[in-house]
């Protein structure tokens, strides 16, 4: 087999396997008459800035943050774009205030609290809380500090617990931080060399019964075809978990798990970011993969419809709204609607 044939095999086989894992298309009993796994583009994300990452839904509006990338010095402020979840209409753009635009600046993920305030992970300002009624922005938590021997933080995803603590993954420092109710300085909640990988702790959610935290570790290495390794881990929701508490819920092999979301069904939906494997993986409550939605083999199979999806939120009509992060290949910066015939397992919103 030539080197070129070997390359094609390594790229196309994962795509074909992704389709083999899809359930047979059948129309679900839903008002939109969409088949299970149907993928549509809800709306494009503005380019620039491109690189959408976080997404949260409130009512019939989706709040999408970006850009989640490097190379932003000298560019306009980081933003949150607001869309109508029914039509995809772009309703509003919220700029993050107070960034030093001459330096690197970016938005990662977002979340809501019980009062409808939006929390945005910003690499410069920390966690910014936005009162959507008044537009007032305040710093809920300062930026996470460097931790030896890593010394370069990368704040990523956030999730609340019932007590009002906010958990923040740090992808470059093998750490999950905890911010106390009401805000303040992040404190180390979990830190261990076992997640000290080239791209570590990423998407994070509490399980439906609020006993565990689930989080993705995206990559244990990388090569020209994508990521090596990648796992979904669990930790008990206790004050001070240790490495002995860490459990593997699912092991991937090159797919690069990113954001995660629990459905009301108990299934866990995992965004797969590695370019050769881009799509959505569906895991049962036991950790077995029951379905996968990926790209068809075609000239643009690396970016259409999925181009390194980063995060997802449910639209309340049976679909996942998925952000295309596009961190390797440009194009198709968008929010996708993937019909999964499931709704959100309610997030904690203290």
Shape: globular
Q: What's the name of the CATH homologous superfamily? A: TolB, C-terminal domain
Radius of gyration: 19 Å
Poorly predicted runs are: 1-30
Strand order of the largest sheet: 1-26-25-24
The CATH topology corresponds to Neuraminidase
Structural class: mainly beta
Taking the alpha carbons of the first and last residues, their distance comes to: 58 Å
Describe this structure in words.
- 5% of the residues lie in helices and 41% in strands.
- It has 350 residues and is mostly beta strands.
- The longest helix is centred in the N-terminal third of the chain and has 18 residues, at 3-20.
- The chain is globular, with a radius of gyration of 19 Å.
Labels describing this entry:
26 strands; 350 residues; Neuraminidase; 4-stranded antiparallel β-sheet; globular; 1 helix; mainly beta; disordered N terminus
Write a compact overview of the structure shown.
The protein is mostly beta strands and 350 residues long. The protein is 5% helix and 41% strand.
Q: Topology, please?
A:
Blueprint: H1 3-20, E1 39-44, E2 55-58, E3 61-66, E4 79-84, E5 90-95, E6 107-112, E7 118-122, E8 126-130, E9 137-141, E10 155-160, E11 166-170, E12 175-179, E13 187-191, E14 199-206, E15 212-219, E16 221-223, E17 226-228, E18 231-236, E19 247-251, E20 257-262, E21 268-272, E22 279-283, E23 289-294, E24 309-314, E25 319-324, E26 334-339
Antiparallel strand pairs: 1-26, 2-3, 3-4, 4-5, 6-7, 7-8, 8-9, 10-11, 11-12, 12-13, 14-15, 15-18, 16-17, 18-19, 20-21, 21-22, 22-23, 24-25, 25-26
């Amino acid at each position: 087999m030539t080197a070129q044939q070997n390359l094609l095999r390594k790229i196309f086989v994962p795509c074909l396997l992704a389709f083999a894992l899809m359930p047979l298309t059948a129309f679900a009993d839903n008002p939109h008459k969409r088949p299970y796994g149907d993928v549509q583009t809800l709306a494009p994300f503005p380019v620039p800035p491109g690189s959408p990452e976080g997404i949260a839904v409130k009512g019939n509006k989706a709040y999408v943050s970006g850009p989640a990338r490097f190379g932003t010095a000298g560019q306009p402020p980081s933003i949150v774009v607001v869309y109508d979840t029914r039509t995809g209409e772009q309703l509003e753009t919220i700029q993050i205030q107070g960034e030093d635009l001459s330096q690197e600046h970016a938005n990662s993920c977002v979340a809501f609290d019980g009062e409808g305030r939006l929390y945005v992970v910003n690499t410069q300002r920390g966690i910014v809380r936005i009162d959507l009624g008044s537009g007032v922005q305040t710093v809920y938590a300062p930026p996470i500090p460097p931790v030896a021997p890593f010394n370069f933080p990368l704040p990523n995803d956030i999730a609340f617990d019932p007590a009002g603590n906010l958990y923040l993954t740090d992808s470059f420092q093998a750490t999950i931080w905890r911010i106390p109710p009401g805000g303040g300085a992040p404190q180390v909640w979990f830190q261990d060399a076992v997640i000290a990988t080239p791209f570590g702790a990423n998407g994070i959610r509490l399980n439906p019964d609020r006993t565990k935290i689930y989080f993705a570790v995206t990559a244990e290495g990388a090569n020209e075809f994508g990521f090596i390794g990648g796992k979904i881990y669990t930790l008990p929701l206790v004050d001070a978990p240790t490495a002995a508490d860490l459990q593997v819920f699912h092991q991937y092999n090159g797919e690069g798990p990113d954001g995660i979301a629990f459905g009301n069904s108990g299934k866990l939906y995992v965004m797969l970011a590695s370019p050769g494997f881009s799509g959505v993986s569906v895991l049962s409550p036991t950790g077995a993969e029951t379905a996968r939605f990926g790209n068809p083999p075609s000239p643009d199979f690396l970016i259409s419809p999925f181009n390194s999806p980063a995060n997802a939120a449910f639209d309340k009509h049976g679909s996942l709204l998925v952000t295309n992060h596009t961190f390797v290949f440009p194009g198709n910066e968008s929010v996708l609607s993937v019909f999964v015939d499931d709704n959100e397992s309610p997030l904690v919103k203290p």
